[in-house]
Design a protein that fits this description.
Blueprint: E1 2-5, H1 14-23, H2 32-41, E2 50-56, H3 68-71, E3 75-76, E4 82-83, H4 86-94, E5 103-105, H5 106-119, H6 129-144, E6 158-163, H7 173-186, E7 192-198, E8 201-202, E9 207-208, H8 211-222, E10 229-234, H9 240-250, E11 257-261, H10 269-275, H11 278-285, H12 298-302, E12 312-319, H13 329-341, E13 345-352, H14 358-363, H15 365-376, E14 380-383, H16 390-402, E15 407-410, H17 412-425, E16 432-433, E17 443-447, E18 457-465, H18 471-475, E19 481-488, E20 490-492, H19 497-502, E21 506-510, E22 517-521, E23 528-531, H20 546-555
Parallel strand pairs: 1-6, 1-7, 2-5, 2-6, 7-10, 10-11, 12-13, 12-14, 14-15, 15-23, 16-17
Antiparallel strand pairs: 3-4, 8-9, 17-20, 18-19, 18-21, 21-22, 22-23
Length: 561
């Protein structure tokens, strides 16, 4: 088992490091013996099967109610679980489909223990952090570690856990205690602890400081855990003398100290870890070096070309909040996947929807002019999901429609496109969503029958194409249906569908009931597509989302190709 710990400094680099290690070749968990037995029968023909999951310290049972501005986007899984954004990176790197059980929070653990106590499962015993909470954590690990996520039968060979947070946090104590116990139960060569820590560089003199790592390792040891490997995050590669100093004060061999210095983008990390022999250190620690094959990254590295591309494609992304990189992480990754596939350098113009509204023009004309300039100089426009600043998003959709600029609307981005079309082409000036204006006489969007103000339609749902003669169907390879992830409460009002279609809109995708409109297009437009689902969550490097490919291709005038 590989357990990745985050550093004392609270720098959130753990996910990047471990994802790269997975891609670089793999390691083993308590399934090591199974992998060895299989290897004896036949020589290894590929990497180990890997299970990846994350533990978060917060008391929320999931990330669904946490503001994206606070902890990054809410990533949605196939089963409808709303989880930490890092699980999106795990899916993209491993090309697997995780479940809600792969994201464990303090809230989930405490709730499961309290539920057992209320049912009387503990037979009158006093319920305590140790052993009940710590046992629940270990039981969760053992149970989830046996569930495959790669579509094949049989348990994975490798279970990699990221413990988020900062060493010393009071929230982490039950988990560090549980893992300390678990390491003893797992036994030698079945448990490997990788500690990710920051080695800051003093810019004035260029000195790499080891004290933060020394102190965090000492804190970790006080909690009953001794790191087997150090993954040192720094702006520059570690000097030889710095590694030797860390080895001396942290009791970790020099060959088990891995440098994770800055790289142009996250896709270079597998190659970086291979060059630094990170995979060999882990395989040796787990007794798997004789069973593993050398990582083959040639195909992967062919895709890490984005910093070498010169011809640009510019996409304006109309966001809800002042730009926060992590709040729209999957959207950005999906655009980047498509731009790399089209061999173009991606330029993203982010700006809040409120900046294009008239109210901003009255208060801050410079800010208003800048936002409109970013919109008008873009090759394509994207309006992602969200919950507010609808008027600004409506203006962006109107601009794209009237000026034949390629447009992709996701969830709310589709809904504002429908509202804008109803106002402009049906003359319904007060058309709106029932969510935003409960008193509107022309509700274009209504609450779904099975939804409520707190219950959303989430998870993978099937969308059927009503016609094959549309851009979306062609982009999806003329499939009869697509399975995409959804997270919403409101849908297009069925009573307005015929009126909108008579005015020029085409609803080309619907759910199995025929009542929910899932995809909308303007046939007369070069590329004007709105979807109720979230295609960004299933986009992969090398397998970009078809709709994002359509946006980039249309923005380059190459959609027909």
């Amino acid at each position: 088992m590989i357990f990745l710990d985050s550093s004392l400094d609270g720098v959130d680099v753990a996910g990047d490091a471990v994802k790269a290690e997975i891609s670089g070749g793999g390691a083993s968990s308590s399934g090591r013996r199974r992998a060895r037995a299989r290897a004896k029968a036949t020589a290894p023909s590929g990497p180990f099967r890997v299970l990846r999951w994350r533990r978060d310290p917060y008391l929320n049972t999931d990330a669904g109610t946490i503001s994206p501005a606070e902890r990054g986007e809410v990533f949605l899984l196939n089963d409808g679980s709303e989880v930490h954004m890092d699980l999106g990176d795990y899916e993209r790197f491993l090309d697997v489909e995780l479940t809600g059980d792969n994201n464990i929070t303090s809230g989930k653990i405490y709730k499961s223990v309290i539920d057992k106590e209320r049912r009387g499962d503990y037979l009158g015993k006093t319920v305590q952090i140790v052993p009940h909470i710590t046992d629940a954590i270990q039981e969760w690990i053992k149970r989830v570690a046996m569930i495959p996520v790669d579509g094949r039968e049989g348990p994975p060979d490798v279970c990699i856990i990221e413990l988020g947070g900062t060493i010393g946090d009071i929230e982490l104590r039950p988990f560090t205690e549980a893992l300390s116990q678990f390491s003893c139960r797992a036994g030698p060569k079945n448990f490997c602890l990788v500690h990710v820590s920051l080695v800051p560089v003093i810019n004035v003199v260029g000195e790499q400081k080891t004290k933060p790592t020394q102190y965090s390792v000492r804190c970790l040891q006080d909690l009953g855990l001794t790191p087997d490997l150090l993954a040192c995050r720094s702006t520059t590669p570690l000097d030889k003398n710095v590694k030797e100093k860390l080895s001396q004060f942290c009791n970790v061999p020099v060959e088990c100290i891995i440098t994770l210095h800055d790289v142009p983008n996250i896709w270079h990390l597998p190659s970086l870890l291979k060059v630094r022999y990170g995979h060999k250190a882990i395989l040796k620690m787990l007794g798997l070096a004789c069973l593993a094959i050398e990582p083959k990254l040639d195909e992967w590295m062919k895709r890490t070309i984005c910093e070498h591309l010169h011809d640009p494609v510019t996409i304006a992304v109309v966001v809800e909040h002042p730009y926060h990189a992590n709040a729209y992480h999957s959207v950005f990754e999906a655009i980047r996947h498509a731009s790399v596939a089209c061999q173009r350098r991606l330029v993203v113009n982010w700006f809040p929807a409120s900046d294009v509204e008239q109210e901003t023009a009255d208060k801050s004309p410079d800010l208003h002019d800048k936002a409109w300039s970013l919109l008008k100089c873009a090759d394509g426009v994207l309006v992602p999901g969200g919950f507010g600043h609808v008027e600004g998003k409506i203006l962006a959709a109107k601009y794209a429609r009237e000026n034949n600029v390629p447009y992709l609307g996701i969830c709310l981005g589709m809904q504002v496109a429908v509202i804008e079309f109803a106002r402009s082409n049906l003359g319904l000036k007060d058309a709106n969503s029932g969510e935003l204006d409960a008193g509107t006489r022309h509700p274009c969007l209504i609450l779904m029958p099975e939804s409520s103000e707190t219950l959303m339609r989430v998870g993978t749902k099937r969308t059927f194409f009503r016609t094959m003669d549309c851009k979306a169907a062609r982009l999806y390879g003329n499939a009869k249906y697509v399975d995409e992830r959804q997270r919403h409460r409101y849908m297009v009002n069925p009573e307005m569908v015929d009126k909108l279609e008579c005015a020029g809109v085409s609803f080309v995708g619907m759910d199995e009931t025929g009542q929910r409109m899932e995809i909308v297009e303007l046939p007369s437009h070069p590329y004007f597509v709105g979807v109720q689902f979230h295609p960004e969550f299933k986009s992969r490097l090398g397998k970009p989302s078809p709709l994002f490919m359509g946006l980039i291709a249309a923005s380059l005038g190459q959609l027909d190709a």
